[in-house]
Amino acid sequence: MVLKNAEYIRSLVSALPDQPGIYQYFDSTNKIIYVGKAKNLKKRVSSYFNKNQQNRKTAILVRNIADIKHMVVETEQDALLLENNLIKKYLPRYNIRLKDDKTYPWIVIKNERFPRVFQTRNVIRDGSTYFGPYTSILTVRFLLDLFRRLFKLRNCKLNLSEENIRLKKFKVCLEYHMGNCLGPCVGEIKHEIYMKNIDQIKEILKGNISGVIKYLKDLMRQFAEGLKYEEAALIKEKLELLEKFQSKSTVVSNSISDVDVFTIEQDESFAYVNYLKIIRGAIIQTYTLEIKKVLDESPNELLEFAIIEIRLKIFSIAKEILIPFKLDMELEGIKMIVPKQGDKKKLLELSERNAKYYRLEKLKHLIVSKTERNATRILETMQKDLQLKVAPVHIECFDNSNLQGTNPVSSCVVFRDTKPSKKDYRHFNVKSVVGPDDFASMEEVVYRRYKRLLEEEKSLPQLIVVDGGKGQLGAALIALEKLNLRGKISIIGIAKRLEEIYFPGDPVPLYLDKNSETLKIIQQLRDEAHRFGITFHRNKRSNEFIKSDLENISGIGEKTITALLKRFKSVENLKNQGYRQVADEIGDSKARLIFDYYKLSY
Question: Is 281 helix (H, G, I), strand (E, B) or coil?
């Protein structure tokens, strides 16, 4: 590797100190392209220019370095924090990228005389207390609803200073009359009692539900002993709500106090770092950070970055962190543990499962999205190729089947978003046509199909495909005309010989390229309709043959034949049965008739 300004870069590297700090790489336009941290700046930066340690991506980064700047800091922890802030500020091209840059909801207890408690996505340093962030908005809504029902806090923005309340500047609102607020604006609830409720909310949000439950139980007992049964009943309602909420919390161990748990799962392009927040042995928060890899970063580098990012994001003050492997980083006053057994090891395994499931869900989502995009593209192509007014999201295809004019049947298959919708497939026994009349059969089944859909007020397809040329297409058009649907649904015919596509009123067929996606979907529809129809036809012929054979036996009627076929499935199977099994099903007299007819031994 040859750098255009190699001499200048070498001079910068040689001047770097052997101290902790951060370094910044700039390109020829003086734009920051990479930010890194180091325990020893000189050793770390020098390693980038060692050919033996370079991978392809790092080599590309190095080729683009035109200048280097650095900043010395007191500790490695300072370097970690500064690196994190600079990456988020400048978004350098070659640094890892946080995929999840959306803001999550918090629950804020406002810094007010009578504090409001509500949801927010903006953390403002105004003395208010914030809990979160929560990855599930449903959790936030549930908690806020719980607090509303338990403590009946105010939600107005009035300035409830002591003087304003004393001077009676406010009147109670509808929330008070509805029983949703205790009326602090008019002095209905004392400040000390209101703040006790706020303290309980803080304990719940910190995960100390059992402490609040104990306090309420003691209070309920006091009310009951003082014969204040109404107050005791109100406390009981609160207890029931809290105990119900507590039952939904995942308690992992009473022996574990307050810890943060971090694990990492990764593939070639992304890393997924799962975080569990444990308070008094219960999991009160879980969060997964998604990181886009850029320079084949090691799991250690990715996990170190994620720990700093997540702890900053959630204002974590836990003094113990559980991690899956040892990291080359130290945080002041914090103990990092790689558990080998026991409850802490189980916690780590739970976090690993969360990270793995998150990655699998992401992959599943990508596959579904890709499939949906594919379907949309194909439908747009079909709309263009067939000159349709709308994309054919819902397509139906008809095919007739008969053997030498016997047992005429038809099939209708349905595709939605280019995929078979098998629950919507339908078979038709042709009722009004005598003999092998393909056109009349097509007219009958198309008429019956859409008459039914209209009567049931179900959605109609955007495209109908009939297996056959101009004759079958014309017959289907007659049916649509009878139902006043001609021109409202697009319809085409596909002839087998040269795969010609016929349009109503156009004698010249359309020939699509054999590799056309439109043709492939139409062929798939036609083949599926044929398969579905043939299967039904074979089953019908088989049943007809069996029935006609049994009907030749004098004294054996329709009900007996149905019972025999239901029990033994076929004549061959019936012949292999012992006399007693058949007699138990249809009686001795009829069983003897069958055994005599087939000359079977009793």
Answer: coil
**Longest CA pairwise span in the chain (Å):** 111
Q: What is d(CA 311, CA 330) in angstroms, rounded to the nearest whole number? A: 14
Structure tokens at 601: 């031994």
pLDDT in tens, 423-438: 999 888 877 776 667 8
Q: Could you tell me the CA-to-CA distances from 224 to 193, 218, 400 in Å, in that order?
A: 19, 10, 81
Contact by Cβ (8 Å): 269, 297 = no
List, in sequence order, every residue forming a beta bridge with 250; answer none if it has no partner. 283
Residues near 138 by beta carbon (within 8 Å), at least 6 away in sequence = none
Pairing between β-strand 32-38 and β-strand 21-26 as defined by DSSP bridges:
antiparallel
Using DSSP's 3-state secondary structure scheme, residue 395 falls into: strand
Backbone angles phi, psi at 291, to 5 degrees: -120, 130
396, 414 contact by CB (below 8 A): yes
What pLDDT does residue 397 have?
Answer: 95
Q: Angle at Cα 285 formed by Cα 282 and Cα 291, nearest 5°?
A: 135
- Please give the Cα distance from 44 to 36 (Å, whole number): 9
Contact 271, 305 (CB under 8 A): no
Torsion sign, CA atoms 388, 392, 394, 395: positive
What does the pLDDT look like over 489-534, one tens digit per residue? 999 999 877 888 999 988 888 888 888 889 999 999 988 888 887 7
Residue pointed to by tokens 């959790």: 139
d(CA 68, CA 283) in angstroms, rounded, equals 44
- The amino acid at residue 409 is V
CA distance 101 to 89: 13
Read out DSSP for 55-91? -HHHHHHHHT--EEEEEE-SSHHHHHHHHHHHHHHH-
**Six token digits for residue 292:** 């886009």
Task: For the chain, list the domains and their CATH numbers.
Answer: 6-95 (3.40.1440.10), 259-361 (3.30.70), 394-541 (3.30.420.340), 552-597 (no CATH)
pLDDT bin (cut points 50, 70, 90) of residue 545 is very low
CA quadruple 374, 378, 383, 384: dihedral positive or negative? positive
Tell me which amino acid residue 148 is: R
